[in-house]
Amino acid sequence: MNAIIVSALLGVVMMFSGIVLKNKSLLKYVATGGLLILILANLMQTYGWYTVNVNSHDLLRFSKFGLFFNTIAFAATFLYLILSGKDIEHTGIYPAEYFALIFFVLCGVSIMSSFNGLLMLFLGIEIMSIPLYILTGADKKNLKSNEASLKYFLMGAFSTGIMLLGITLIYGATGSFLLGAQSAINSAAASGAPPRASYLQIAGIILLFVSMSFKVSAAPFHFWTPDVYDGAPSVFTSFMATVVKAAGFFAFIRLFEGQTEILGPTWKILISFVIIATLLVGNITAVFQQSVKRMLAYSSIAQAGFMLFAIYSANDLAKEGILLYATAYSLATIGVFAVLIKMKDYTLDGFNGLAKTEPVLALTTTICLLSLSGIPLTAGFFAKYYMLASMVKAGGAVWLVIVAVIFAAVSVYYYFRVIQSMYFKDGVAETSEITGGFKIGLIFVAALIVLFGLLPSLLLNYFYF
Amino acid sequence: MIPLLLILIPLLSGLAVFLLKDSPASKSLALASSVATLAVSLVAVFSKGELNYDASWLPGLGSRFTLMQDGMGKMLCLLTAISFPVVFTATFKNVYQRQSAFYGLMLLTQAGLLGVFLAADALLFYFFWELALIPVYFLSSIWGGEKRIAVTFKFFVYTFIGSLLMLVGILLVYAQTADHSFALQSFYKVKLDAHYQNGIFALFFIAFAIKMPIFPFHTWQPDAYEQSPTAVTMILSGVMVKMGIFAIIRWLLPMVPAGVQAHSMFVVILSVIGMIYASLLAIRQDDIKRLIAYSSIAHIGLMCAAIFVQNQIGLEGVMIQMFNHGINVIGLWIVADVIEQQLGTRKFSELGGLAQKAPVLAILFVVMALANVALPLTNSFIGEFLMFNGLFRFNIWIAAVAGISIILAAVYTLNMIQKIFYGNTVDKTLGAVEVSANVQLVLSLLVVMVLVLGVFPQPMINLTKDTVSAIFANR
Description:
By secondary structure, chain A is mainly alpha-helical. Chain A has 19 helices and no strands. The radius of gyration of chain A is 21 Å and the shape is globular. Chain B has helices spanning 2-18, 25-46, 71-90, 99-118, 122-143, 148-176, 184-189, 194-211, 220-227, 230-255, 257-284, 288-308, 312-343, 354-357, 359-373, 379-394, 396-421, 427-430, 437-455, 458-473; strands at 51-58, 63-69.
């Protein structure tokens, strides 16, 4: 509860600080400080020091799993603000509002990580999405940004409609919004007869699956992703592709945990299809991109394909894995985007010769890209490892694992093209001004990636106590 | 402790060299570090029994930082440790841009290679397997020839696909282990049914076959050897291809004996096809580097076949030949590098009569080349004799076909000697001079090793005897 309340309050504080503070460059420090408070408030609840209690009639339920995810999401946002806070100021004319909207997004994220009733899931997703529609259109004079915003909004509204229909059907079938209720009814039925769910409930679950797939940009519901990620100002794409996406997955895994027996063997076919489609579309299309930003948009689809394994296998390893994946993927993507924002030219050729002009940027970007492609010694390796291991543990779908690793090899192709541009090709990569603090921030992110790549237990141990 | 030192010395000095900011000291530091590694590996060779190191790493996953150095490990670590100082000395005069990065990456490669040969934990093994690859990718892509970027990338993607399939294999075996551990011993103990073994065999074998490489997975290799800077090519062909052979012996043979048994004929036939095919291609080459690359494929093919015939004599041959092939091929590359650096060409059609200008080089090179043909008195003779013996016991007809490759090896090797060193001098070789002292020194050392191991191979056989007998004891 702490995180939900504090993040909403901080959003309001940020809005007003835009009026109070005349010096706009102070805003990012206020926001960074606010995030520290938010992290602290969340940790207080995690370790049971102090919790604000509001009776939610069991619509919200706080678990270590969810609270720990909050910490990861907030910490990622913290790093994001440190690296790209300055660029947020330069994006549009209302920097205070942008910071406020980011806090509202975080409020939605913390609801999504703790929902226990479908209504709360709906509220969380809406609270998270609406600020994002605005952030996408933050570059008001840019047509592409406007287009992206409108597209995102329309598609988002559409998927929300589908989700609401699904929730309604489930409510009609079970008479409850609560997560556990459906399976309880089911198991009660199972005690005598073989488990059988009503068609309403099955239809509802499939509709929920579709709308969640939309939110995490899983194929074939991914079509909005490249345009929105490409059109949105790069700073906000970074945020959307990391924290928001990870939160979507987190809600996805919580929602479908224990629900899938209702669908029986059909479920495995359905999710296998979505996984393969996502991996195929994301990886193959990313290969052909010339713009690094668009490539990263497709790569985020491809990474979603890997994260979907957690929903397929849905065991302990998958839960640990999704936390690690969220961390590894967020760290790496925030790092790459932070550098991308500084580039004058977003095409691959724009990166030519970066290793000579800005060796620190090139090295840290390389570490981030290696992590995204899942090379050992980076956090990305263990993220992928946990996904594959959870699949093997769940058993039965070795072919899917083999397909996944082949696509992982394909992903090397487009990630390494950036490395090739930076290191092996000649050119003068133009960047905007790079400060020493920015470099230190990048080195810190890269160091974290390597650290978690050596000892993922450092991160996961917190999950257990 | 010794196994840990073997990894730590190149790893730490490699990182230190990076920080030297292009100072010429990086070269000397790299050489000093590689000599130190050599000293430690000699200590390992002369110490008795298995050397072990064990530390906690990932308790939640059942993976430990376990290193184990048995006879085969000692032998391959020695090969790695000899190769690097040899390469550094032979190419000491070469000038590289950003040399601190070059030598740093070389040392990191060495750390990765030594780690592969020492790891006794599947996940750790996978880590080092990749760690050896990444620095090589950068080395070849930055300092290589004209087509370096595309060629090196092909090499990287090939091996990466293989490694990922191996990772799936590791996970599948891990899921079957009784104690949920990645330890080598747990992998050995796991009992898999025959059907399962075939699948595991395929996943691992593709990774190792790409690395060795075995026909038809070899297409990355000639290009990569040709385009990489020669110092890297020496490591690639001298040491890195041994990773594949080593991994088959260490992991595949004891883990899935039924899978190996079921596929042995298939793999032996593939290897023999590869031997003949590569030898024929080698005859047609006009480029020293490509010729050596194809000849290397042929030799590796023989080693792979000799592993899969699964008899003791064949495996003993593989053990000593792994070491000998490393020595010989590095010697050949050194000469290729000298010629390229001095004359600016690697084409036979533009060379000739070099023996008149550089007699010492000619003598040393002829010895190395004869070792490549496996003439008696040279080190390769013993290894190839044992391997053909093993092949003969497996199947006479296959041995007969494989035997053709010996003749073909003589054809292309002698042809190469003749075209480079004999005949009349041509324009390019008119200005050639004798090679510098450091190259002479290194080549003479290699020649001494060739001859000594050629007449007295017993120490090498004794060194690796424990590994060989352990493999056959478990069946």
